[in-house]
Amino acid sequence: MRALLGLVAYNAFLLAVGIAVLAALRGWRSWSDLARCAGLAYLLGVGLVGVALTLELVVGVPFSMATLLLTGAGLVVVALTLRAPLARWRPSLPPDRPGGLGFVTLAFGLLVVVCLEALFRAGRLAGLSAWDAWAFWVPKAKAIYFFGGLDEQFFRELANPTYPPLLPALEAGAFHFMGSADVVTLHLQFWFFACGFAAAVAGLLAPRVSPFLLWPFLLLVLVAPRVAGRNLDPQADFLLDYFFALAALLVALWLVEREPWLLASACLLMAAALLTKREGLMLVACLVAAAFVGSWRHRRYAWPRLGLAAAVALAAAIPWRIWFSSRDLTGELPAAGALALFDHLDRAWPALDSALTALFDYDLWLVILPLVVVAVLLAYVGGARVIPTFALALYALTTAGITWALWAFTELELPFVQDEGVNPIVRLSGSLVVASAALVPLLLDAAWHGSDGPAEDRS
Length: 459
Prior knowledge:
By secondary structure, the chain is mainly α. The chain has helices at residues 2-25, 31-36, 38-59, 65-83, 103-124, 131-147, 152-157, 166-178, 187-205, 211-222, 225-230, 237-257, 260-274, 279-294, 299-325, 348-359, 362-365, 368-382, 386-408, 425-449. The longest helix is centred in the C-terminal third of the chain and has 27 residues, at 299-325. It is globular.
């Protein structure tokens, strides 16, 4: 019970930071509006605290409970200080419409709650069995918790020493709030991440798309076999997917609504994704490139702003790259170099085939990716252009990035198998599947209304 209450307090702390950030960037028109945005605020808090802790670890700030609390308090103060200067950029929010939740929202919302409750019970006494979790993610978190910083020698002995420490820092923070390095209860921290993601998608899309489009697909993604079976593992895969998916949704909305707070929020989440896993660099690059493609008709307005957001996100990741490269830690690229794919042309088609096989594997993801293809086609047929073009570019570029990851490495480094222990293909494909929970309802809504201009509030 001590550990459970500690986790509740820890996530309330992260939510408080996120609410302060949301107040600076967007604000809210009522308490119900704030409640609807709570999921987004929570993940903004998770991302911003994680980025701040990572930068502090890199420069050598001792990690402790006091450091954690002071960091959160400092972020809240900075956000509230910036609230007045940013007032001119905040949107003019219309008043809430009266009315209830509606039968569809209530019915599917209850199903999502039941799904998350079952997930909680599954994670309450889950063992530390995932290889990546016990091999390096949790040991890094324990090292930060017990030693109060980045132990270079210890990190060097672990697998994947160049993975950024955002997740281990967040896990170490959870240990402090729980009062011990409780690796069993730690699984529930990832339950909070999953709840925050579901709430963020629902909160962002509820005023924009029909509940008939929003809730069934969100539920479908949550019950996909690999999502339901692995999203509580204390490793960075799904947290990266949540950051990436929400950033993609925010960018898609910004492309048609042009509200500055949407792009600013996406920028924070992209920075968090870059510091969650090294694959974050590829995913963020694909996201930004897809946004450039989707905004081609309005490139004079969109491209400078997208470039600035990408530069700010990338700047947050540079200190960590300086830290590990200055200590000769390796493992970011294939042994033969980034362009080694030209030395392995025979791996090109097998790599693409393996990527597509993983993406469309029914036993992993049900029929989510085939529905994505249908949604993109329907959006084009319906008359929308910006959102389906952005989505098509995002899925195509990310698939190409996954293919590159398999192509450039040798057979000894990455064999063409669907075994997660020796090949990251399944984990990488999860990023697009999770993003589908956010993008498919938006695509279907664009198809239904025949345009992708600013949607009316249909909540």
